[in-house]
Amino acid sequence: MLDITDRNLLNAISDISYIPPQSAYNIRKNGAGIERRNTEKVQIVTKTDKPGIDIRVQPGTTGETVYIPVIITDTGVNDKVYNDFYIGDGADVTIVAGCGIHNSGCHESRHDGIHRFFIGKNAHVKYVEKHYGEGEGTGARVLNPTTEVFIGENALCEMETVQIRGVDSTERVTNAQLDAGAKFIVTERLMTHGDQHARSDMKVELNGAGSNAQIISRSVAKDRSQQVFYPNAVGNAPCHAHVQCDSIIMDEAKIRSIPAIEANDTDAQVIHEAAIGRINNDQLLKLMTFGMTAEEAEEVIIEGFLK
Amino acid sequence: MLELKNVSFRVDDGGGKVEILDDVSFTVENGRFLVITGPNGGGKSTLARLIMGIEQPTAGQIIYNGVDITSLSITERARLGIGYAFQHPPRFKGLTVRRLLSLAHGSELPEDECCSYLTRVGLCSMDYLNREVDGSLSGGEVKRIEIATLMARKLGLAIYDEPEAGIDLWSFSMLVQSFKMLTKDADESVVIISHQERIMQLADEIIVIADGKIRSRGPKDEILPTLLGEFDRKCDLRGEKEAADHA
Predict the structure, then answer these.
(1) What gap in Å lies between CA A53 and CA A36, rounded to an integer?
(2) What is the pLDDT of residues A113-161, one digit of tens each?
(3) I need a labelling partner for A84 at 20 to 30 A (CA). Which of A307, B41, B111, B158 fits?
(4) Domain map of chain B by residue range?
C-alpha cells in the first residue's frame, strides 16, 4: 500500500501520483517489488537468477506507456536491480522510469539500476528517467544507474534523463550500440548543489551504415558541487554523431567535460561541441529589465536551460 | 516624465579618465516620442543604459515621474514602468519566444496576444511561438523578438536602442508602422536611438548627441532638415560641392 511519502516520491519522479488504469507498471520499494500490472502486450516478469524484472513488449505494440518507478523510504537500503527490456520489432512505446529516495535517517540509501534495452527493428522507444532525493536525514542518497542499449535496424531510441535535486552522489554509465539506420537521441539534464558529486560516462558506438546519434548534455553546478562528463561517440560505419555538452558553473563548483570522438570509417561524421561558463550577464540584465530580481532571473535562466 | 539633470559618465580606460557623456540634461514629457541620433561612439547607447540603470552616472540625476531614480536598480526601475530593448539582445537556450514574451508581460500571455505582438514586428507568429530564442534564430529575428518583448509590457517609458539594426527593408516598414502606433499612446513615452530618417519622421523631438554632448535639440521639423542638409553636404549627394570646385 502506498502512503503519502511514496506518492510524493512517485510524483517527483514520474509526474504522476497514480498510474493510469490501462498501463503496465511495476513499483519497487525498498528493494522489493510491491505492485505490478501486465497488459495484453506488455508482460513484466520477475527474474529468477538475480533481483530485477524482464519487461517484454510484443512486436507491433503501439501507444502504450510502461511505468517502472523505484522508491526508497527506509534509511540504509542498498538496492541493486537488473531490468531488461525486450522491445519487439515495430513497437512504439514510452517507458517512464526513475528513482526517488526519501532518506530521513543517518545511513546511506543507495539504488543501482542496471538497465538493458534490446530494441527490435523499426521500433520506437521513448525512455524517460528522473532521479530525485529528499529527506532531512544525514544519510547520503546515492544513485548509480548503468544503461546498455542495443538499437536494431531503423529503430529509434529517445532517452531523457533528469536529475535536478537531492541526489548526493551519482555515477552514470551509458553504453549504446546502433545497427544500420538506427537513431539514438540522448538528452541528459543535471543539476548539482551543496557538496554533491556527479559523473557521467557514455559510449555510443555507431556500427551500422546510416546510423545517427545525438548526445545532448546540459548541466548546472551550484555551491561546491562537482561534475565530470565523459561522452564518447565512435563511428564504425558511414554515420552521423553529434555530441553537445553545455554547462553553467556557479559559486565554487567544478566541472570537467571531456568529450571524445572517434571515427573508424572515412564516411563517419562525428562532431563534438563543449562549453562551460557562468550565466551570461546580458541574459540576467535582460530579465531584470522585465522587473525580476537577479535571483529570479537566474532561476528562470537555469529552468529554461535544463528544460 | 523623464528628466536628466547634468548627467555625466566617465570611465577609466587605463590611460586616464574618458568622458563618455558630459553634462547632459533634457526632459521627455509623458506621451512624447523622442529620437536620439548622432555619430557612432557619441554616447547614445550609454545614455539609454544610464536611464535603464544598467550603468550608473558618475555625476548628475535622473528623475522619473518626480522620483529620483539615480540610485535605483534595474529591477526597481523596470517595476516603475521603464523598459529597454537592447541593441544586441542576448539569446536564451531553452526559453521559447512565447515564454519570453510572457516573462516580459509578467504573466502567461494568451496565444493570440503573443501572435499580435509578433505580427507587429513582422514575424509570422505561428512559426515562432514555440521556437527557442537561441542560436537557431538569425540576428534580425532576435532583434524583432526583443522589440516585441517591450510591446508586451505596460510601460511608462520605452527605450529602443537602434531597433532598425539587422532588420530587412520589408520588415522595417512594418516596424515603422508599429512605432507609429506607439506615438498614438498618450501615456507611454518613447525614446528611440536611431539613424533612420523614417523613424526620425515619427518623432516629436530630436536630440543629436556627438562626443558625449548634446549638439542640437528641438522639434523634428526644426532638426531633421538640418540633419539631412548636413548629410547632403557631407556626402555631396546633389553634386553641388563638385560643381563649385569646378567653377
Answers:
(1) 11
(2) 899 999 999 999 999 988 888 887 777 888 888 999 999 999 999 999 9
(3) A307
(4) 2-234
- ipTM at complex level: 0.91
Which of the residue ranges A96-110, A162-176, A225-239, B5-19 has the most confident prediction, judged by mean pLDDT?
A: A225-239
3-class secondary structure, A295: helix
Q: Where are the domains of chain A?
A: 4-281
- Which residues are within 8 A (CB) of B116 and not within 5 positions of it... i.e. 6 or more apart? B125
Place of cell 561517440: A233
- Among the partner-chain residues A286, A292, A306, the one whose CB lies closest to the CB of B89 is A286
Model confidence at B6, pLDDT cuts 50, 70, 90, reads very high
Percent of chain A whose pLDDT exceeds 90: 68
Asked if B204 and B220 count as a contact pair (C-beta separation under 8 A), the reply is yes
**Inter-chain touch B94–A307, beta carbons under 8 Å:** yes
A9: confidence class by pLDDT, cuts 50, 70, 90: confident
pLDDT of residue B243: 62
User: Nearest residue on chain A to B96, judged by CA atoms?
Assistant: A304
**What CATH topology corresponds to B2-234?**
Rossmann fold (3.40.50)
